[in-house]
Amino acid sequence: MSLKRKTRELVERREQVLLGGGETAVKKQQAMGKMTARERIIALLDDDSFQEYDLFAQHEGRDFDMDKKELPGDGVITGTGKIYGSPVCIFAQDFTVAGGSLGLMHARKITKIMDHALKLKVPLIGINDSGGARVQEGVNSLAGYGEIFYRNTLASGVIPQISVILGPCAGGAVYSPALTDFVFVVDKISKMFITGPEVIKTVLGEDISMEDLGGARIHSTITGNAHFFAQSEAECFEQIKSLISYIPWNNSQRAKRLRPRNTKNIYKIDEIVPVDPKQPYDIRNVIRAVSDSSEFFEIQELFAPNIVIGYGRMNGQTVGFIANQPMYLAGVLDVDSSDKAARFVRFCDAFNIPMITLVDLPGYLPGVDQEYAGVIRHGAKLLYAYSEATVPRITVILRKAYGGGYIAMNSRHLNADIVFAWPSAEIAVMGPEGAANIIFKKEISTAEDPDKMRKLKIKEYKDKFANPYVAAAKGYVDAVIEPSETRKYLLYSLEVLETKDVPRPQRKHGCIPM
Amino acid sequence: MDTKTPDFDIFSYEGTDYKTLLTKKFLAHKKYEPEDPSRIIAQIPGTIVKIMVKEGQSVNPAKCLFIIDAMKMRNKVHASVTGIVRKIHIQEGQIVSKNDLLLELEEPGSGKKSKKKPKPESRKNTATRKKPFGKKKK
Predict the structure, then answer these.
(1) Do residues B67 and B76 make contact, with C-beta atoms less than 8 angstroms apart?
(2) Is the CB of A369 less than 8 angstroms away from the CB of B14?
(3) Measuring CA to CA, how many Å separate A43 from each of A99, A249, A401?
């Protein structure tokens, strides 16, 4: 056979595999409002940047007549590509081939590309759309999942790992996304759960739809398993591209630096925050008032909205923002918001992203359900995450910073590098009302007019303690600054902290209270 | 810049009233009710296989009250206190749902009726616990 003929044979073979599960299966996929695995890869990656691996992989099923079946690519497409010129490794499960089910070769293809990503030190993106384990391949499927989880764990903190849920992802399959750093979901398309509605029905007698059990909205608002919620796959891919632009390729690099830009004039920092700590405002506008181009890329927007996390840029360089949101629950810390912030802090620390913390909170959320849900254990994660972080850490206290909440929000006491306070900051054990009620309990209760006395005492406490100067006098606050100068101070501090180098004692790893 | 103002609620914290929005999760949180050991509630749906006690009989934590078949297991249910069986709400062979009231005990020295007499609200609360996210009843 001539080389020409052999090459023609290659092209023919390739064309055959590229059809995926065939026309009927593709039509079915489209009818569900979903793109095919190949369309997704093309939509996500830079034009002509995808290089596929293992196109001709053959499945390993020998029982139950599986050996008579052709499964193109064994239901998963893997390879390398680029996003905004940054290299990534990617896999996409192909639901048109045996429902994207995971057999031995399918798993091997995934672990191979994972090993590749770790070797190249580039981000890994996994698009999940699978009916689960390929039952015909039995324990080989389970082995496959386990080998993926193992690699997810080894890669954690070395390369960014992104999971995109674009179809079902149930049972053991959910744990790969759960081990990765960012999970993207799309309304009506993503479904994630450990046990499905049918099992729940038989065991517990509870009736619930797939959407209400593990739909995109549930994971974005209630469970916190998802980080980004989109209305369509196209929107989801835009979100992934934005994220990639903010994070570095691996843990030994910095995120790509863009051209520094000024903030937009519409965000006037001293007009955003009411001086009365009882009045709400949107903390995200404060972030926009200090970040380059007034851009803020929010993560987990719908989950625990009482804390805000996400990326912006300062002088062209990526910065992680963590901020209490007085708009929701006055900005309290609770189980969910502690988890959300702690995880973000650890990602920033692992990937050399400096952090800016904006503080405005009355403390921790009280309640039996909070205590029972383990707010002690969950709250401890945030303390731990901040304390162990060695990237530059800057704090700005805007208004209220009371009690344990003040300590947790990257205070000087957790070894923050620079702590700024606005003149409106109130750093105290609790709010003036609560403090006056305790300190002056006797005076108030024995007074002729207790209400008048209470007001008097609250004012007395406020005048004395509800300010940043008590903390500044002790060195807990490094500088009290004009709100309108905040960006200037932050830019300068980030520059100063460039050379920060904090050695840590040798250890295998800390024991974060999980 | 987003300038529209939402309808804020008041969130009281250590004597201070903050104007803010309340999250769905916060609003959905269950009011705490202490557990009532005199009311035996089904923890899991299943079938009552055998009832080992009669009304009026005195029981203690060592005594098995009934056996419920659930999750392919026969589960023995014991009283958590010493007392007298006041009312049995189940029959052998009956299928029960989660949170159904199965049996009521009366603790000794608590007078004629149980001191912790079931309050109407606690009943209501038990019912809402069936549907944590406010979903429709089947």
Answers:
(1) yes
(2) no
(3) 21, 21, 45
Fold of A3-246: 2-enoyl-CoA Hydratase; Chain A, domain 1 (3.90.226)
Helix (H) or strand (E) holding A161: strand A161-165
- Domain boundaries of chain B, sorted by first residue: 39-109
Contact between A438 and A388 under an 8 Å Cβ cutoff? The reply is no
The alpha carbon of residue B45 is apart from the nearest alpha carbon of chain A, in Å, by 6
Query: Any idea where the domains of chain A sit in the sequence?
Result: 3-246, 269-429+467-499, 432-465
The dihedral region occupied by A5, where left means phi > 0, alpha psi between -120 and 50, and beta the remainder, is alpha
Backbone angles phi, psi at A182, to 5 degrees: -135, 130
The C-alpha of A21 sits at a distance from chain B's nearest C-alpha, in angstroms, of: 38
ipTM score: 0.82
Residues ≥6 apart with Cβ < 8 Å to B46: B68, B69, B70, B71, B75, B95, B96
What CATH code is assigned to A269-429+467-499? 3.90.226.10
| A360 three-class SS | strand
Interface list for chain B against chain A, based on CB atoms closer than 8 Å: 1-2, 8, 11, 13-26, 29-30, 32, 44-45, 71, 97-98, 130, 133, 135, 138
Residues of A with CB under 8 A from a CB of B: 203-208, 212, 221-222, 266-267, 277-280, 282, 285, 288, 304-306, 326-332, 336, 362-363, 365-369, 402, 430-434, 437
Tell which residue, A183, A167, A314, A153, has the closest CA to residue A243: A183
pLDDT digits (tens, 9 = 90+) for A367-410: 999 999 999 999 999 999 999 999 999 999 999 999 999 999 99
* pLDDT, tens only, A424-472: 999 999 888 888 889 899 988 898 998 899 999 999 998 888 899 999 9
Sort out which chain A residues have CB atoms less than 8 A from B33's CB and list them: none
Among the ranges given (A89-98, A323-332, A409-418, B71-80), the one the predictor scored with the smallest mean pLDDT:
B71-80
Average pLDDT, chain A: 94
Q: Would the CB atoms of A431 and B44 count as touching at under 8 Å? A: no
Instruction: Kindly report the length of chain B.
Output: 138
Instruction: Nearest by CB to B14, from A277, A285, A430: name it.
Output: A430
Residue A303's SS3 state is: coil
Q: Which CATH architecture has domain B39-109?
A: Beta Barrel (2.40)
Residues 6+ apart with CB under 8 A from A323: A283, A284, A286, A287, A307, A308, A309, A357, A358, A359, A360
Write the DSSP assignment of A52-100 as a string of letters: EE-TT------STTGGG---GGGGEEEEEEEETTEEEEEEEE-TTTGGG
Name every chain B residue with its beta carbon within 8 A of the beta carbon of A208: 135
Which pTM does this prediction carry? 0.89
- Quick one: pLDDT at residue B116? 42
**Which of B2, B29, B44 shows the shortest C-beta gap to A367?**
B29
Best of A369, A400, A441, A451 to substitute, by most chain B Cβ atoms within 10 angstroms, is: A369
Neighbouring C-beta atoms of residue A153, cutoff 10 Å: 10
Whose tokens are 């609003």? That residue is B27
